[in-house]
Amino acid sequence: MVVVGGGIAGLSAAYALSQSDGPPIACTLVEGDSRLGGKILTEQVEGFVIEGGPDSFLSQKPWGIELCRKLGLEDRLIGTNPDTRRTFVYSRGRLEELPEGLALGFPTRLGSFVRSGLLSWPGKLRLGAEIFVPRRREEGDESLGGFFRRRLGDEALERIIEPLMTGIYAGDADRLSILATFPRFPEMEREHGSLVRSMLGARRRRTASDRGEAPRWTPFVTLRGGLSELVRTLAGRLSAVKVCVGRRVTAVRRCGTGRGYEVLVEGDSSLKADAVVLATPAFGAASLLEPLDGTVAGLLEGIPYASTATVTLGYRREGFSHDLVGYGFVMPRIEGRTLLAATWSSSKWDHRAPDGSVLIRCYIGGAGRETALERSDEELVELARADLRHVMGVMEKPALVRVFRWPRAMPQYLVGHLDRLAAIEARLQGLPGVFVAGAGYRGVGVPDCIRDGLGAAERVRAYFDKSAPRSL
Known about the structure:
Helices cover about 35% and strands about 20% of the residues. It has helices at about 10-20, 65-70, 110-115, 120-130, 145-150, 155-170, 180, 185-190, 195-210, 230-235, 280-290, 295-300, 345-350, 375-390, 415-430, 445-465; strands at about 1-5, 25-30, 40-45, 50, 55-60, 75-80, 85-90, 95, 100-105, 105, 220-225, 240-245, 250-255, 260-265, 270-275, 275-280, 305-315, 330, 340-345, 355-365, 400-410, 435. The mean pLDDT is about 90.
């Protein structure tokens, strides 16, 4: 069989297929880029650990930590620095600390928000009145913005929810699907009639069962040497897999015999496969499946992607104008600035900057803000520095600069995304042995992509179990 795509989803699928917990499956992984890992890209320069793509993953989603454990990387995992556990929102000309008691952007301790300067008094009163907002009567999906505007009001959405939640997807709150991004919240509304009522009940249950045991991991974790440690270790465990890097797949077509597929690889002979996992962006899968099924290709092509960039700046600590006591800040869209957010990497994580230096990572682009990416790398650096001057008063010239561009890298789960996924899955039934996996479908985070890759491998094994004997 063939796995197309060597990002974390494709690597996870190939790894699972190469394990000895089932009948051996001969597997070839083909990656068009010159390296494996997809958007996971770590560079180590002059003692700095620089992440070009994601810099961490959620510990509450177990698939990332479980895979690290299987690979013997558990002792390399590190959590966020407990000594600087503060996050800020830039609002109305100043950095406002996010109050304690925040769960996925929603306040669980209303008292701390009443004392916060993030919301005006009308905004605080509207947030507190959420308990009186009736349930939504209509069934089906709605936008993330529509959901939280309805329950919490405009100000809470614009100043708190939107910068925290849509920052994950680099998207537009009024277009993203609440069911595909944060289904927990509409579920809370359905079950309890109020987010506040649901949160208060959950707090009481936690208090009643609390035994004083601290969780082992902080909410976000990473690897000491950067997330590319995971990629390198995975790649090193693929001894039973033929890995072709720098080879672009140009087409997938049915074999002349009628069973199985022929995977055409640029500059190489075609590969015969009884099954194919397309662990590529949805638009890449669409172009490969267009000759086989134009309808499923159209459904896949209909998943839009936003472009982003990261600008990483390293500074000498001596005389640096900000204390960097915290993890960084997010920027509400309503402020009209270039940055989506900035992570104070050397404060959030250990082992990110050499002694006497600090590291800041800035995020630019996303849906509705992509015009900034038309600028040169030098101009992006100046835009980032201008916002850091405005927000933090950082006047110093960086000693290190790195820019990473990610065109069409962030899938957008628009309203109706789950219906689109169901239609894709139904249509793929007509292409037996073809599976799709990756960030475009069921979650954009590293653990989500790992789960999707492992799930694709399970579906391949189930498919083979139902099929006639194969020769791969």
